[in-house]
Structure formats: C-alpha cells, structure tokens
Fold:
Amino acid sequence: MLSVALFVVGIHSVNAQSILSEEQQEQLVKNVSDFMYDLNLSERDKPAFRDIISDFFVGLIALRATDFSMDTNKKVIKTLVKGRDARVKDLISREQYKVYKNRVKERKAGLKDFMKQQK
Structure:
C-alpha cells in the first residue's frame, strides 16, 4: 500500500507527451472533446474537466512506465478511477454524472473487448 501512495504522489512528475505518440495525443484530445460535448459542460466547467481527465491519464501513463505487479497495478488504477470519479461528481450535475458514468461504462466494455482480441 505504501508503494501505491508513493506512486500517486509522484504521478504528476511524468511527462505524458513524451510517452504518447502524436496520433494517440490527437485521439485523446478528440475523445475528451466528444466527452465534454456529450456532458454538455459549461464553458466554466470545461477547463476543470480537462484537468481531471489529464491528471487521470498522466497517472495511467506513469503506471505504464513502472514494473509494479499486476495486483499493485489494479490497486493504483482503482485509486485513480475513484479520484477521477469523485472530482467529476463534484464538478457536474446529477444528470450529467449519469451520462458520465454511462460513457465510462461503455468505454470500459470496449476496452475489455479490445483486450480479449489482443490475447
């Protein structure tokens, strides 16, 4: 558990741009823009939402660069997801949060299908 705490503290020191290809960065920006459109975010909320999503992806990218065990990776991902979801929940309305959770659920199902195809 100490390694999880140390990891979470250190995730902001990783430069995500050096890990993602330009194509991956463009796709990520498009996905976030589409997500914000689906949520119908106000102009005031868009920068905060981008920051939340950016922090989450920096954490995932930093995790990718480690050699943690699979169990530790799962714990770190759960911590990142809980943090992201709590921050989003505080930012948006109940109705927007329902849309958010449905979209997250869809992306998670898509990721599971993708991982099955990779095996």
